[in-house]
Amino acid sequence: MRRRTLPGFSLALGTTVLYLGTIVLLPLAALMLKAADIGPERFVAIITSPRSLAAISVTLTTALWATAFNAVYGLAFAWVLARYDFPGKRILDAVVDIPFALPTAVAGLALTALFAKNGWFGAPLAEWGLQVVYTPLGIAIAMAFTSLPFVVRTVQPVIEDLAHDVEEAARSLGASDLDIARRVIFPAIFPAFLAGCSLAFARSLGEFGAVIFIAGNQPMKTEIVALLTFIRLEEFDYPAAAAISAVMLLAAFALLVATNAIQAWHVRRAGVD
Amino acid sequence: MADRDTLSPRRALRPVGGHPAFKGPLIALVVIVTALMVGGPLAVIFASAFSSGIAAYGAKLADPATLHAIFLTVLVALVVVPINIAFGIAAAWAVGKFDFPGRSLLIALIDVPYSVSPIVAGVAYLFVYGAQGLFGPMLEAAGIKIMFALPAIFLASMFVTAPYVARELIPLMQAQGTDEEEAALSLGASGLRTFILVTLPNIRWALIYGAILCNARVMGEFGAVSVVSGNIRGVTNTLPLQVELLYQDYNVAGAFAAASVLALIGVATIIARGIVERIQRKAEG
Predict the structure, then answer these.
(1) Which residue ranges in chain B fall short of pLDDT 50?
(2) Which residues contact A200 (CB under 8 A, 6 or more apart)?
(3) Quick one: pLDDT at residue A177?
(4) Per-residue pLDDT, B279
(5) Chain B partners of A167 at a C-beta cutoff of 8 Å?
(6) CATH code for the structural domain at A43-270
(7) Among A42, A203, B223, B262, which has the minimal tally of Cβ within 10 Å of its Cβ?
(8) CATH class name, domain B54-283
């Protein structure tokens, strides 16, 4: 173990801890304190009220749809960017990040205009009898848009770094493309893929700006948890806002812990890093 | 397989997924879905913003509340981005150049805002600085207003962007190690001089990249700011909030005009990122 020879450690660490402490930890701790203050009985009553449960169910369902879509599409996207050369590839590579660079309110406004009954996409879809705006499908589309880059950007570098020799060895032993994809490539990219899906899911669960434009926000039907929190605040019902926010925060942490645990388990089992 | 040795391995072994019947359609599918899903929203913003001509567009943007929202958004970015750069450098210096107990915990902590809903962040701030928050009564007694005012917008923006610069710098500083800095120090350079002349040039592109992303997020943040700002028209309304306000007022044309400014910032962010990456690649040879 080498001695620390560089200066500035205490200053840098002090600044970091102070910043994270006041900007990130203090508010989250205050939120948890407020939620704990409510008392377990009232807390449970708030969370299990029909409107809360409906919002939780809508949010979970639509976030799952959005994440499932991005798992498939993001994986294909990452593969295409990492493995093929074609004209316009650099543009495609840049376009991936637009959902992160575009403010969520702008995305929500644009998606609502596109899928409105007289919109570019909404009009043809309406002829098929499919309505997107003010339905859970619209919520899922908004979530899928804002969380699109996560799977692509976590999986793409891993596919680029995959050693070709293992694939070539498998190929020379007569393995088919599907076999190699399933038994060689997928296990190697799985931890990154899972991390990407988990980030996309977390983002979808908490998405607000993009969703509220397209959702219609009908209580019990198309009201997401983040909006319900916001409405409780506007009603000055602070205990309810605290309780619902605390549940969202705990869900986000549980997701992080679960992702790390599955990754660790996978690394142990498959022996890949 | 008998004539395998006579062929070069590259020719004999087609890469996985390299069959034309798979490759072509897969590329086409990804391009089409992306054009619809990402190109569609971008196109509709500009098409709607300019649907009644440039003059009408200009008039919508010249609305005093929208102009004030643009000013406020730029002001927030001017305050928050430099602070985030300073924090990012400090965090990356501590975590990337040193090993200490609790290091991985600190890295995990930096990432927390990525997973927290902006609405939750806003609510959390309310319970610190709001009237019913931890410091609320104290601040009120002292006559300091943080909630539903500019300081709350700064703080909420600092929360949501905390990881942006640090995340770009940490892996880079870690990979670069401490050899160059140690050489400079052993030659008698001061710590600050070493940082400015040795470390900073090594990380400048990642720093710029992180700052660009941070700027885009600050200017576009909606959820957290809409909880803490109080949405006071012409006072604490940032541009994304103004977009929603105009839309709620059934001023759809005005909403699209304001949205187009934000969309332009987003597109500029992507282009700037591409330029930075290209320069970086060239610099690395």
Answers:
(1) 1-11
(2) A66, A67, A70, A71, A74, A147, A148, A150, A151
(3) 86
(4) 86
(5) 15-16
(6) 1.10.3720.10
(7) A42
(8) mainly alpha
